[in-house]
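User: quick one
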Amino acid sequence: MTTADPITTEVVRNFVISCAEDMNASLWRSAHSAIIYEGKDSAVALMDENGNMLGQSTGVPLFIGAIDVCVRHVKAYYEDDIHEGDVFIMNDSYMQGTHLHDVTAIGPIFHEGDLVGFGAARAHWNDIGAMDPGSTMSSTNIYQEGLRLGPTRIVSRGKPVREWYDHLKLNTRLEGATIGDLGAQIAAIRTGERRLGQLLSKIGADTYRAACQNIFEQARQLDREAIAAIQDGTWSREGYLDNDGVGTDPVKVALTLTVKGEELIVDLTGTSGPVAGSVNCGASQTESLLRLAYKTMISPERAITGGSFETMSVILPDECMFNAGEPAACEWYFTGLGLLADLFISCLSEAMPERSTAAHYGDSMVVGFFSVDPKRGQWISIEPTAGGWGGRADSDGESALINLVNGGFRNIPAEVMETKFPVRLEEFAMRPDSAGPGRNRGGLGVIRRYRMLEDCYGAIWFERSRTPAWGLNGGGEGKGPEVSITFPDGEAETPLKMRARALPAGTVVETKTGGGGGNGNPMERAFDKVARDVRRGLVSREAAKADYGVVIADDGTVDMAASVAR
Amino acid sequence: MTKKYRVSADIGGTFTDIVYQDVSTGRCGATKVLSTPDNPALAVLKGIDEVLGEDGELAFFVHGTTVGLNALLTRRGSKVALVTNENFRDIYTIQGNDRGEIFSIQWNKPEPLTALEHTYTVGGRLAADGAELSPVRLSDLDALVTACARENYEAIAVSLLFSFNNPAHEQAVGAYLKERLPDVQIVLSHQVSPEWREFEHTSTTVTDAYLAPVVRKYIATLQREMGDRLPEDGTLHVMESNGGVMTAATASETPLQTLLSGPVGGAIGGKALSAATGRGNLICVDMGGTSFDASLVIDGLPSTSNEAKLEGLPIQMSVVDIHVIGAGGGSIAWTEAGALRVGPQSAGSKPGPVCYGLGGTEPVVSDANLVLGRLDGANFSGGEMTLDRDAAADALALLGQGFGMNAEDMAQGVIDIVNAKMADAIRTITIQRGIDPRDFSLVAFGGAGPAQAAALAEELEIGEVIIPVHPGAFSAWGMLQTDVRHDFKETLYSFWDQIEVATIEEAFERLAEKGRSFLSDEGIGGDRIGFERAIDFRYYGQEYVLTIPLPDGPIDMDAVRADFDAAYERQYGHSSPENRVEMANIRLAALGRLDRPDNAPPERAEARPARERPVWFAGTPKPTAIIDRNSIAEGDSVHGPAIIEEVTSTTLLPPGWTARLIDGGHMTLTKEAMA
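Assistant: Done. Structure below.
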């Protein structure tokens, strides 16, 4: 049997990671929609011929566990009928776990006639033909959420399948962008094909396969050692979503985590059953989230490969919002996942006090504006909003950072937004006093204020007002989210969730995201840190006194006598 | 009769390297003098006087400086105030709000170069097309004017929204501040980086402001002090980050362009070396006193990019791609939490390594090399300096007490750590990009590079090391191999199928006219001027562009369009010839060819009587031959262990390695088992 020496293995290990990064760069640079090239709502992966993950690059860390499953669906459906030059797409929520917007393109990679692997590129399509333009907010079953595709051959032996392209065009409100983005996904796969081809012509497919086996084995070994090093025990936590998107009742999310030797067991028993609104999530994406949460605590610096995560098992009740089946709506599948991750991290924070991290602001906090008037041109601007992260064992939480299930999302710059869309960004700033107080405080949320320059539509999805980012070890909770809409006639509303509705020119939408939870007793926070926060306008003098017991004089210095001693 | 020379100086934190080329013979020589950071000209003049004597005349003088880069890496730039739009105070601190490490919940954003308490806002706003929505409210700036005396700001960066479309507000702010704060450097974003994306152009502007006072003061001092030693026309040239050269006057206007001024010389030298030795793929590593710079030459060309990131912060500027880490001969060894660390802090030339006897007390990499016998304490820098081995050994022994290690073991540990850091830096630009370093030759230069090259090559399994001529001054040598270059761009936005050829030709002619005028101001005449034209294209609906070079002569619209489709296909694996294409910017590089003679190999010298001294390899001292590089004939071999000495550097040839002199006087090192 062919073997691979340690140097070749290391070259291959770094190659698959960098190859994936090249594929993603190719996707981002040739995509047509800002949500991909600015928002980075995408992921690519290079896998072996059985769909085992080798290298991946993702703007959305939540996609770490749910791309390889697509290869398995393609292989199960097409069996041997897979040929050089083919590309398949799919988006079914129950198969790949996410919402229908996420379309995964998968291409087999051949070397000298042999199947040696798969490349895949997933990207968010702005419009997939749902009941509302862009993202629907009020769906109650999957048939309202758009075109649903199982594994579908879209390119056959290098030739686009015309009827499928036409079918896609007929089922989206944004024909040009959709086909353009599909082209970018295909480009990413071709990039992977080309790069892998270069490597294989040098080292040969057998050595490559042997190196891949070494990589898988190394990952398994490292995971087992990491879990064994954590103290054994069982911890439980629960929290509530504000609602399911259509009703008003809170939705319960519960998690029990057990560490036993080299095993980590996650049990979601106690979590709400399937709900009427669209916060249900397919099992493979739930597992993906748990992998992500695991990764944040256990060796986050190491690359993920096919051998990772074998140490974790998940108990998922049949009747559970995180185990969705027909006809559950899944458009906002990730909302519950942000809370689930915070619960997981809080449980492990007790087992691993040195990595203890309080909860973060929690959800994507999506704001969308669009117009569908064919005479004036169609456009969609949609973006998640950054917020505050939890205080850590040894430092403050970061401010104005995108939420956990995202990652590579960048804010749309005012200069790009205003050039491309009739929307003006009037303010983009840190939100003072939003951070949870603590010896190490949470990070701050942000304020973004938009003014509509033309009549258009707007939609909003904000969460975590019922269970804002909680603190740990005596730290306080961060402020929850707030939204206000002021219409040109002076009427004002404060909806955290808003289904697509008309916004006349002159409407002002102001969003405020939550802060992160604090870690440790705020009365132990050093005077100079509190004074600096006040000087920078991040904490008000009133909050300094109320939350930290620190009195700041008019000249900005600490009035030691009047402050609570530490 | 006076002789004429082309001279270059690479002014580093520790050493100033001088290369001089006899205009009549093409032969180059080099020297190395200790830098004089308080007045860099002193070192340059000392070096020039030493090698050219009183009579040698300068026909051309170019220099590269790391003064800007060092200020940034050590966070010792000027104190900067930032002016942003009202309601956008936090854009520079918020940054892109993406997570640099997406699986980490402990990640922190890069530390900005100026903090929130030094950010001031001004009312007034422009729309996307540059139209004024509300006038600029200059009275808001009075808070900054008042604070300036208290805070001692040395520079003010002004970065307002949409200034790339209409600079009026920035200009008004600039004029208002200039009048009230005449001694403070004011930097306006539309001048530094007329490109959209507010965080990126703000970051670029702040970086320019952070460096401007440092760089301008430095250039003015150098120009004044060099005085009549400069060439007849008084011109001082500076290396640019794009690999070309510019005059000092231009550099003072665009200090940011000097950021990679020092390291870029090595990449350009690498390009010349690739042509001279017929080796297409080179990893060029420059290890000096303070930093370790790695760059690639692939198929004979240095790899370049349109945006640089330094310390995690973006800079919108066209640059030769160089990966920099804080590791050099001057890197200080220190302990933290029971672990030994090396760098990134550097002792520089003041106080310098312990062995220099200039007041340094913390041992550095050079001290370790001296203790291991790899440097000649009695004949350092061509006999210019005597090094104190005992002092270096004492300092290392003191550091070693906590680990129960003696001076020699400690020295080896310091070297091992710094080698591992350098190997990682090379992995970042090769293996991590899927490039196998074993397909490359390793070009090692800088004062400290040739002593580490063989160990580094072994760690990366690289088969061949090249030590070029004048390795300790190779960046300076590279500076003599380049031409004057000025880059211009203009936003010319249109569908390709709607624009007239004449419109494009006229726009290019406008840029060419600017280029001609820059070059003629710099004394470069018509027949030595050339242009490279390019256009940024994208398919309709896309954001990112591909830059497509145009051939000389009239523009053939269809051919250019086909070139774009082909380039797109090459880059992304697919193209859309049926889609409409937009052009976004036109770019023009104005090149002024400089006269230069062909390079001739250095002169040979007679071999001196055999010498040897003990050098430590793998923990044991071995008797090792000391050889003068200039006594080796072309085609001759030297077998390790050996120390090969020359004026600017010392090459360590470990047991099992062979050195050979090849064409042009360059030297290769290969390991016998691998040869």
